[in-house]
Design brief:
The structure holds two protein chains of two kinds. By secondary structure, chain A is an all-beta fold. Helix content of chain A is 0%, strand content 13%. The longest helix of chain B has 24 residues. Classes of the chains: A mainly beta, B alpha+beta.
Chain lengths: 75, 782
């Protein structure tokens, strides 16, 4: 599988998904690589769209601990 | 891991073909020679599912009929921006024939609204067409009647759907933040959060291809010629033959989902996550699929709704979008306003590229212009600033070479213009600035087939209808997904079966898998049965990024190779030789030393100790390593397209007469199928260049042409003559060394047409689609 571009301890919400422009999905059981933030599509599988359960933008930097709709990854 | 060294073909036959030595896993097969010396691979083998498709035997998701199945429809907001005060579904629930009703409620768990604090249990409406509730009934008509009975109390809010209007400070805000959102923390090791002001988020200045380089100011100072323009592209909606849709069959012990998807594995995973089920309880089937251009990777709100409705009703629920829903809500190619400034010296060498773009993916992200300006040509200084602009319009999606088609429209016009200012032929100029060997060959072969010498000075063709000739080129990286596994089963009755979860979205994946396995086993493609598109089988890659062929065919060959070795072990004693002295050819296992010693493979299978033998292989790392991470292979998939157009200078109509499309995809596996994909990419490119255009009503926030009448797609009379050229380009990176062609086939077409239109009329058109009004305006005839 892809290697993370960088490492970090910050965990993303378990419901965040990113489709990068290079054919692979990020988030969930796949790592978040954040290869290209201008050309990637992001969505929340809980709210089923680009707006999260709090009506805010689904965006990797904000779909982290502290956002009220955040849920810990399973692992 | 045990390894061995082998020599593989390297380079382009007829140009620079040689061999390269690579260290590869010890259990993988020896190198195949170039296609000329193969029997099945590289040939125009008939599609494995051709008969099923032309006879109607093939069952697509919309064809699925299950006992007791209900039909689902969704109620969509008619307002582009609103808060929902209440939803009353009681009348709908009482309607005869209705079995389940579900309302989307987004404020789950501890979520607090990021709006004005006026909490509602329902999600804010952010575009006209956003689903609000759903119904499952015994007929579509009853379901639609029930939708009319659902009462929604909306609080209407101001909205903006136009890309430029949305950037104004006073524009209605799509995603509210209390203050300017800046540097929201990055996280996960990814890029840091981008600043958002009003509806504008960005700029994105880097990607995994890198960030800014060189000294832009010095680069432009060093330039003898500078070209500077702003290019505009339109929103392109998702018009695959089959719309998005699923049939969800929720049973007590497990859930089966029939899906029109580009990613069976992801649909399974999303459904399991959404409904808190183990993945083993969710099965996704995509036996036949009617196309997708990137927007069909997720479960989608329709899939979630079908899940709720099936769970509530205890019956299977079919939820297929209609054409209008497909236009307004299923995901589109974002538009762009793209500024480019490029400097060059008199010898042609580029000195600096400055890029800035704004685009809207509606209620989401992803409206950049790709990285083609960053990577295709050598240039010491480069910067990009790519901004997302939020609007109250349907969402964007990953869409066939995301961003790069928009980016190429600017870049390749600018390169054309630079060539003219340098008094150079556009092809000769690209020979100077482009270091790609494969594109060099494509330019040469394409120019010959196209007869580039016909091109005259821009605007010099006499008469009312003027001929024009243009060229453009593109690059697409070779990506692979290592989470790609193939199982091969050999049965005593002689059957060979290939199994993988990978889906065939119409491109011919079944056929190339059969070819690869047949080649390795010395059989015919027809001898191989391919069963794919089912998550009961080993996981396959999603169909995006043109990664499927490069990801799934190497493990298919490797698994076939392991099966072959097992058969050799089994029959060697009978043939009075050593397993290592056996080979396969024409359906037989043959002694290399004495070709009278042989046994039919089908007879060898009869001798198996067990009823079946199974071998499995997963995609290994690229031979020689990756260029980046574990996904980006070395070398690119180059393409060069030539366009011939006729422009009527009185009516403004443009007719594309001919496209010569020269492409590479590593080792071509099936010539006819590759040509077919090139045809599809070119047709879609012509359509993007001249016809397709989402028209939004700024007063209502609705798409005004959400149909296939006013949203124009080309008919047969508007499709040009297409001549594909396929270049073999070996890199020795896997056991098949093959890659996809889906994305590359589409990137260069529209801008090649634009360059040809310029050549015809002598005036550049910087905005897509090139409609008659724009041509006449350019000619000062309006």
């Amino acid at each position: 599988m892809m290697e993370k571009v960088k490492s970090s301890d910050i965990k993303f919400c378990r419901f965040l998904r990113v489709k990068n422009p290079y054919g692979t999905l990020e988030g969930g059981e796949n790592a978040l690589y954040l290869l290209d933030d201008a050309n990637s599509i992001c969505w929340c599988i809980k709210s089923t769209g680009g707006a999260g359960p709090d009506n805010g933008l689904v965006d990797p930097p904000t779909c982290v601990s502290g956002r009220t709709c955040f849920e810990q990854p399973v692992n | 891991m045990d390894t061995k060294k082998i020599k593989l073909p390297y380079g382009i036959p007829g140009h620079n073909l040689s061999e390269i030595e690579r260290e590869i896993p010890a259990n993988e097969p020896p190198a195949w020679p170039v296609n000329e010396d193969l029997k099945v691979v590289g040939k125009s083998v008939k599609r494995a599912d051709a008969f099923a498709k032309v006879t109607g035997f093939a069952k697509y998701t919309s064809d699925i009929q299950l006992q007791g199945m209900l039909y689902g429809r969704m109620l969509r907001s008619g307002y582009p921006h609103a808060k929902i005060r209440s939803i009353d579904t009681s009348a709908a629930e009482k309607l005869d024939g209705v079995y389940a009703v579900h309302v989307f409620k987004n404020l789950v768990g501890m979520a607090q609204p990021q709006t004005d604090g006026n909490s509602s249990e329902y999600p804010d409406v952010k575009f006209a067409g956003q689903p609000v509730a759903g119904v499952a009934a015994i007929t579509i008509e009853i379901a639609e009647e029930a939708l009319k009975l659902i009462k929604v109390d909306y609080e209407y809010l101001p909205f903006v759907v136009d890309l430029e209007e949305a950037q104004r400070p006073e524009a209605p805000i799509v995603f509210k933040t209390n203050v300017e959102q800046e540097d929201s923390g990055g996280g996960g090791g990814g890029q840091r959060g981008l600043k958002t002001v009003g509806n504008v988020r960005g700029p994105s200045t880097s990607s995994f291809f890198g960030g800014p380089r060189g000294d832009l100011e010095k680069g432009f100072k060093d330039a003898d010629i500078i070209v500077e323009h702003t290019y505009r592209t339109q929103v392109h909606t998702h018009c695959s033959l089959e719309t998005h849709g699923v049939v969800v069959d929720w049973r007590p012990d497990d859930v089966t989902i029939y899906a029109s998807t580009q990613n069976t594995n992801n649909v399974r995973h999303e459904f399991a996550e959404m409904f808190d089920l183990p993945k083993s309880k969710v099965r996704v089937i995509t036996e036949f699929m009617g196309g997708g251009f990137g927007a069909k990777h997720s479960l989608g709100n329709f899939g979630v709704m079908a899940g709720y409705l099936s769970k509530k009703s205890g019956r299977p629920v079919s939820m297929m979008l209609d054409r209008k829903e497909e236009h307004i809500s299923s995901g589109n190619r974002p538009n762009s306003i793209h500024y480019l400034k490029i400097g060059a010296k008199k010898d042609g060498s580029l000195t600096a590229i400055q890029q800035k773009s704004h685009g809207t993916a509606g209620v989401g992200l992803g409206a950049g212009v790709g990285r083609i300006a960053q990577v295709m040509y050598e240039c010491p200084s480069f910067t990009t600033e790519q901004y997302d602009v939020f609007t109250h319009a349907g969402p964007g999606a990953a869409w066939r070479a995301p961003g790069n088609v928009q980016g190429a429209f600017g870049l390749e016009q600018a390169i054309d213009e630079l060539a003219e200012k340098l008094n150079m032929d556009p092809l000769a100029f690209r020979d100077v600035i482009d270091k790609s060997e494969v594109r060099k060959v494509e330019r040469r072969q394409g120019a010959e087939k196209f007869d580039w010498s016909r091109r005259k000075k821009p605007g010099s063709d006499p008469g009312v209808v003027k001929k024009g000739f243009g060229v453009a080129q593109s690059t697409w990286p070779r990506f692979v997904n290592l989470n790609s596994t193939v199982e091969i089963r050999a049965y005593k009755d002689g059957a060979i079966e290939v199994r993988s979860g990978v889906q065939d979205i119409g491109t011919g994946t079944k056929t190339v898998l059969a070819q690869v396995v047949a080649e390795e086993l010395g059989m015919k493609a027809d001898d191989i049965t391919v069963r794919i598109g089912d998550t009961l089988f080993p996981t396959g890659p999603g169909s995006g990024g043109s990664i499927v062929t490069g990801s799934i065919t190497p493990p298919a060959r490797n698994a076939a190779y392991q099966l072959k070795l097992q058969l050799f072990d089994q029959v060697a004693e009978k043939l009075e030789t050593e397993p290592s002295k056996l080979s396969v050819a024409d359906g037989f296992i043959v002694s290399k030393e004495d070709n009278t010693k042989k046994i039919a493979i089908k007879d060898a299978l009869k001798e198996m100790r067990t009823e079946q033998v199974t071998t499995t292989a997963s995609r290994s790392d690229d031979y020689g390593g990756f260029k980046m991470g574990s996904f980006l292979a070395h070398d690119d998939l180059g393409s060069v397209q030539f366009a011939e157009v006729s422009v009527d200078t009185e009516t403004g109509f443009v007719k594309v007469d001919k496209i010569v499309a020269a492409h590479s995809c590593g080792r071509p596996l099936n010539i006819k199928q590759i040509e077919s994909q090139i045809n599809g990419g070119v047709i879609q490119g012509v359509s993007y260049a001249l016809y397709e255009y989402r028209v939004m009503d700024n007063e209502t926030g609705h798409q005004m042409n959400g149909n296939l009448d006013q949203y124009k797609l080309p008919c047969s009379m508007e499709i040009p003559e297409i001549e594909p050229i396929i270049i073999e380009d070996y890199a020795g990176r896997s056991s098949t060394d093959a890659y996809g062609i889906g994305e590359p086939a589409n990137i260069a077409t529209a801008v090649a047409v634009a360059n040809a239109v310029y050549n015809a009329i002598g005036v550049r058109i910087y905005e897509l689609p090139i409609t008659p009004d724009k041509v006449l305006k350019a000619l000062n005839k309006t």
